[in-house]
Amino acid sequence: MPHEIHGRVQKFGDIGPAKVAVSTRRVAVPCLMALACAACTAGADLPAGVTADRVLMLRPGMTYEEVTTIVGPPVRMETELPRHREGSMDVVHRQVPTANPFGDRVVLTFSRPVRFAMSYPMLWVTLEKGRVTDIYAKRYDAWGLDSEGVYWYREGKDPWGGGADFRELFSPSPARR
């Protein structure tokens, strides 16, 4: 049954522009606040075995079995194809999934990007012919748009990084303990 509100005839089902604006604000403001809070947080998608102390136990020359005994299995394993041409393009460092850790050059990934997190850790271990040559960790910032290395240990070189930033980034959260 229609009735008049502020000089306007309102019909059943017509909630009016003022009510729509208030209802939209009631929903939009909490949603935007939740999104803003989520966007400002750090995240980590690391297996339970990937902690700062365990990553620091990894050494160049270790085997795949030794690595997985310390930090657990990788979340992804890829082989790096040799440099080649595709049409008119030189292709360098192309990686494709593999199940064989004993190839010429294999990259083990022990973390995943975290959607909507302002920062998150990533860890890679590179094997050549089944032996570790590099352990590299970095922190992605600005929702993955920027990154900074926090630890690197390469065959024939002294380890670099591994300080407070690295330890904080790879410290076990209560959910991973």
Mean pLDDT comes to 80
Strand neighbour order, sheet with most strands = 6-3-7-8-9-10-11
What is the number of domains? 2
The chain-level structural class is alpha+beta
The CA-CA distance between the termini, in Å, is 61 Å
**What helical percentage do the residues reach?**
10-25%
Elements, N to C (H/E): EEHHHEEEEEEEEEH
Poorly predicted ranges: 37-41
Rg over alpha carbons: 25 Å
Shape: globular
Give a structural overview.
This protein is an alpha+beta fold and 177 residues long. The chain folds into two domains: 3-39, no CATH class; 52-169, no CATH class. Helices cover 24% and strands 31% of the residues. The protein has four helices and eleven strands. It has helices spanning 16-39, 52-55, 64-71, 164-169; strands spanning 3-5, 8-10, 76-80, 84-86, 89-91, 95-97, 106-109, 120-128, 131-141, 146-154, 160-161. The strands form three sheets. The protein has a seven-stranded antiparallel sheet with strand order 6-3-7-8-9-10-11. It has a two-stranded antiparallel sheet with strand order 1-2. It has a two-stranded antiparallel sheet with strand order 4-5. Strand 4 (84-86) and strand 5 form a beta hairpin. The protein is globular. The N and C termini lie far apart (61 Å). Mean pLDDT is 80; it is low at 37-41.
